[in-house]
Design goal:
globular; 8 helices; mainly alpha
């Protein structure tokens, strides 16, 4: 069971990539979006499961690995699913959502930075959920304008 938790937390090992592991982990989200976006209920269930299990497992492992270890990337690939839910299957929208999410995840505009101060799984997951929500709002507006 420990191995399965580590696989989920590290995005099938992408969290161990020395450069930009979080960015590479977003590719998992893109694969899920590509294959499951035509099944909205299933897609939302995947998102909710990844978020909840990510929260629980990152809380557990942060006690061992330290506060928000770099190798935990479930927060990125779980939360990037949120804005992807709202975009059509077009490369332009995908690229915009990807860039917006990564920028917001790195910059952490208010109040996202304060979420990082929370301990354990909450501190790991909530700032990325906030970045996902901000990105979702932006892409919803963009899709309405461009369409």
């Amino acid at each position: 069971m420990r191995t399965l938790k580590i696989i989920l937390l590290t995005g099938f090992g992408l969290g161990y990539i020395p450069v930009a592991p979080a960015t590479f982990a977003c590719m998992i989200s893109i694969a899920i979006w590509r294959f499951f976006s035509d099944f909205p209920l299933l897609y939302l269930l995947i998102f909710l499961n990844l978020f909840v299990w990510g929260l629980l497992f990152s809380d557990e492992f942060s006690k061992e690995w330290g506060k928000d270890p770099r190798c935990i990337v479930v927060d990125e690939y779980a939360c990037f699913l949120l804005p992807l839910y709202f975009i059509p299957k077009k490369i332009l929208f995908l690229a915009i959502a990807f860039l917006a999410f990564r920028i917001l995840d790195v910059l952490k505009p208010p109040p996202l930075r304060s979420f990082e101060k929370l301990s354990g799984g909450l501190g790991i997951m909530l700032d990325d959920l906030g970045a996902g929500i901000y990105t979702a709002i932006a892409v919803i507006i963009l899709v309405k304008i461009i369409k």
